[in-house]
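Write out the 3D structure for:
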Amino acid sequence: MRDEHEKSLKELIGQFVSQSGKQHLMDKQLLFNHWPEYVGNMCAQFSKCEDLRNGILYVRVQNAALKFELFGHKSQILKKIEADFGSLVRDIIFRP
């Protein structure tokens, strides 16, 4: 059993990231890594998260058909992201 002065490595890393102002970068990378969970493996093969700025997630898609498909599911994708990251992403822009 840990006493109150001991912290796990995860807690220490989290504290360091938070204090260093790098939490946004860490969240961004985690979001990009989880993209296949939000859109499915097939769609993830043909789309890529490119940037996250001012609450807007920019996603590159390979063709117009996929853009249309993902756009139709945008609200569902945003709900999944919100469940994991809170209000980090408020909109998604899909671009070819």
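DSSP finds five helices and three strands in the chain.
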